[in-house]
Amino acid sequence: MPVIPQPTTALASRSVLFTAPFSQGGFRLDTSAIAGIFGGQTVVSAMATLPVHKGAKWSTFFDGLFPGNHTDPATLFGLDGRAGPKFRAAHSGTVIDDTSHMAALLMKECSALAGIKIEGRRKSGPVGVTIAELHHTPNHEGCPAQFHTLAPVYAIFPILVSLVTCVMCLLVSDWYSFSMILLGIIVSGISCFVIGSGAVLFTHPEPAAGSPRGDGILGSDKEVAILRGEEGAVNSITRGRFYLKFDSEPHYENIGWCSVLLMIQFIAQLLLIPQGTLFGQMMFVTSLAVSWVYNLWLSAFDKEQIQRNTLKNVLQVPRLTKYVLGTRASMVVFVLLILKPEEPDKIMNSLLPNDTKAWRKWKNVIISRIKNAQALNFDQSSWNDGSFIAKDRELLKTLFEDAQDAYQGFIDNGL
Q: pLDDT grade, residue 65 (50/70/90)?
């Protein structure tokens, strides 16, 4: 009775050109452990967060495969989702407690600037004040200019390595390793094509007709930005956003299916790579390691800086001028002198909530002089009030000196 060879035995016995190295040894490579070294956990985590669907058609199917919270693509890829600092308009009275991702990017840009120092007699803690001249109002929706890098050129190297290792496995008839490397090439290519097909767009609300200028203050404890421009230009910072537009939205089935393919690839490689020869496993790990090095280099790019540069291009490179003041009191006076708001008391109280008798007197004097466009020059008579105890008079003296220092800096810099 003829003996029918098993398919796996027949395949293993065939060699196209030469015998695989290490084929006589009993050693077997633990590829799953090595995959963990080369970012395996990151890959698994990334696959678990890839489905970004909102529709009902595939909801039950994808929810079963990938349970957890779902989010939009822009937030998933870090183009949106950060909350910016509080904004208060100088003329309209608008207050936005949590501004957009764009405001957070602008504040980071302001923090990185070197400032012009405003000399003062007291330094309790430096506070930066950046004046942002927003001379351009972006379109309601548009596609910002893309930055060109050499990443696509360098991507040729891991692709070539994967192809070479795939061919090497084919030459020694290691069909398991050959098929798994080839599967990785195909699935990764499809996933990159699908994710890369999304267009990055910028959008912001259109202001109502007849809206006043959008001038206002955006800031935190140690950094403040004064936005000066039309309402449309300012709300592109306070309420604008980047988003990714896919042809498949709002269901995003193509991204969901990519995650399924990646999961199938992961499971297939986990099960079949150990069945290959040691040489094939080494080829697989080589292709994995080179791809990991490329991804590591790619992830080293400062994505936030790229977004900040994109935002500046959208706004047609606004002029940013930063000043550094020694105290928060002098910062508030400096801001009020620049903004000239309709209701300076509201902005002052929001930035300086102190409400003692001495603070109220100081605030009333400063607000009165700003409203009447009077100089902020003070002498002993300004704080030598018999109705205050010595400690309060000392505080008033300090605060008035802070205000005078801010005013002098305002005048010296021609603001």
A: low
Q: What is the pLDDT of residues 325-376, one digit of tens each?
A: 999 999 999 999 999 998 899 999 999 999 899 999 999 999 999 999 999 9
The yes-or-no verdict on residue 54 having pLDDT over 60 is no
As a whole-number percent, the residues of the chain with pLDDT over 70 amount to: 83
> Could you write out the three-class secondary structure of the chain?
CCCCCCHHHHHHHCCCCCCCCCCCCCCCCCHHHHHHHHHHHHHHHHHHCCCCCCCCCCHHHHHHHCCCCCCCHHHHCCCCCCCECEEEECCCCCEECCECHHHHHHHHHHHCCCCEECCCCCCCCCEEEEEEEECCCCCCEECCCCCCCCHHHHCHHHHHHHHHHHHHHHHCCCHHHHHHHHHHHHHHHHHHHHHHCCEEEEECCCCCCCCCCCCEEEECCCEEEEEEECHHHHHHHHCCEEEEECCCCCCCHHHHHHHHHHHHHHHHHHHHHHHCCHHHHHHHHHHHHHHHHHHHHHHCCCHHHHHHHHHHHHCCCCEEEEEEECCHHHHHHHHHHHHCCCCHHHHHHHHCCCCCHHHHHHHHHHHHHHHCCCCCCCCHHHHCCCCCCHHHHHHHHHHHHHHHHHHHHHHHCCC
Whole-structure pTM value: 0.78
Residue 281 confidence (pLDDT) above 70 = yes
